[in-house]
Amino acid sequence: MSKQTLVKLMFTFLLLLCLSNAFSQKRYDLSVKEAVELAFKNVTEVKNAELDYEIQNAQNKEITGQALPQVSGAGSINRYIKLPQVLFPSSEEGIYKVLKENGLVAPTTKAPPPTFTSFSFQQPWNTSIGASLSQLLFQPDVFVGLKARKTALNLSQANLELVKERVKDSAYRRYYAILIAQKQSDFLRGGIERLQKLYHDDSIMFVNGFAERLDLDKVQVQLTNLQTSQSVLDNSIKLAYAALKYSIGISQNDTVVLREGLTNEDIKRNALDAQFKYEDRKEIQAIGYSRRLQELDVKRYKMGYLPTLSAIGGYTISGMGQQFITNNNFIWFKSAVIGLNLNIPIFDGFQRRYKVQQAQFNLQKVDNGIENLKQVIDLQYTASKESLKNALLNLDAQQRNVQLAENVYQTTKKKFESGIGSSFEVLQADNDWQTAQSNYFTGLYNAIIAKISYQSALGKLD
């Protein structure tokens, strides 16, 4: 193979590889709600919770099946290689007794010892086929299980909603963290552009003897710091996008574009208007269903003292003969049976009593868990509400501070451009503006996270 041919093959391979990657990548333009819906479809934890719901649904149908008629069939065909034998005794004792009574033989005459003759009640070919039916009329644990079906399904649904709440919370936090980081990145770029212009203006003044080298160096230090911060922030945004992709269950090769904005008004809108109710929390709903199931478990063991009753029926066809069943001389028999089976528990060594006690203790543990959960929810609600109040106050203060720092910068810049101020004053005002803006973005992030935490505490994260 020539070198030119090898190069062509390598180029073709790389081109196909690039095209394959291009077609495999997807682009998602997402609002925060669309990101959450995408997570519900893709995240493994949600998928498994949905499968748990389907498993419970199948188990419910299995329990229902226990209360339906049970029908089974059986058949067999046998060929005896050697027929089973039974022994039948043969004795002349009775004959000799009669002869003695009639004087036909001497009284001392003894009868011959008995003999045994073997024969079989079976035929070489034997077959049977039949069906049996049973219908449960009353069995305590089955009927309690039938009552528990809906509650168990509701518990699986509540657990699914719990998983979705966690996934939604994660998606919200990561989505808004990226939005804020991007806003901060845009501001840093504006700061870099301002310092680059200031450096350019100072360079001209330095050449003309109106500025010192020290002025240039100060601007360069600040510019380098901003460029470094920009690089670190851009890398953090890439990592944040990777985390978001993972949290919504899409490939790292896919592209995500966030098409939703975030302002102070968005955070403040209806921030503290919602009413608190325990029933809105999915955890309370789930543990409520768990308590109901535990109550049914107590009932199941208590009803274990009751008898069980079932109806049975069967029909069998059997046959035997010297030759295979297709022979006309094969003899057939039919039989049928119906009846009731009753099982009455009398004494089990007090096992059921202690099973009832265990179930009651478990019910008390669930009640204790409910009280503890309410205390945890109270703490979450109080802490998140106060955090949100403080975050909103701080956000307002930081927003005012940013506006003030910007005004100072603009005034200082005009004085510098008019020749009555120094570049150092501009640099210092710009640095103060950068600091105020950084504090504002931190406050913005804390405010949105506090709002998400507060809505989660309410059970109303939309």
UniProtKB/TrEMBL annotation:
<dbReference type="GO" id="GO:0015288">
    <property type="term" value="F:porin activity"/>
</dbReference>
<keyword id="KW-0472">Membrane</keyword>
<keyword id="KW-0732">Signal</keyword>
<comment type="similarity">
    <text>Belongs to the outer membrane factor (OMF) (TC 1.B.17) family.</text>
</comment>
<keyword id="KW-0175">Coiled coil</keyword>
<feature type="coiled-coil region">
    <location>
        <begin position="388"/>
        <end position="415"/>
    </location>
</feature>
<keyword id="KW-0998">Cell outer membrane</keyword>
<keyword id="KW-0813">Transport</keyword>
<dbReference type="Pfam" id="PF02321">
    <property type="entry name" value="OEP"/>
</dbReference>
<dbReference type="InterPro" id="IPR003423">
    <property type="entry name" value="OMP_efflux"/>
</dbReference>
<dbReference type="GO" id="GO:1990281">
    <property type="term" value="C:efflux pump complex"/>
</dbReference>
<keyword id="KW-0812">Transmembrane</keyword>
<dbReference type="GO" id="GO:0015562">
    <property type="term" value="F:efflux transmembrane transporter activity"/>
</dbReference>
<dbReference type="InterPro" id="IPR051906">
    <property type="entry name" value="TolC-like"/>
</dbReference>
<protein>
    <submittedName>
        <fullName>Transporter</fullName>
    </submittedName>
</protein>
<feature type="signal peptide">
    <location>
        <begin position="1"/>
        <end position="24"/>
    </location>
</feature>
<keyword id="KW-1134">Transmembrane beta strand</keyword>
<dbReference type="GO" id="GO:0009279">
    <property type="term" value="C:cell outer membrane"/>
</dbReference>
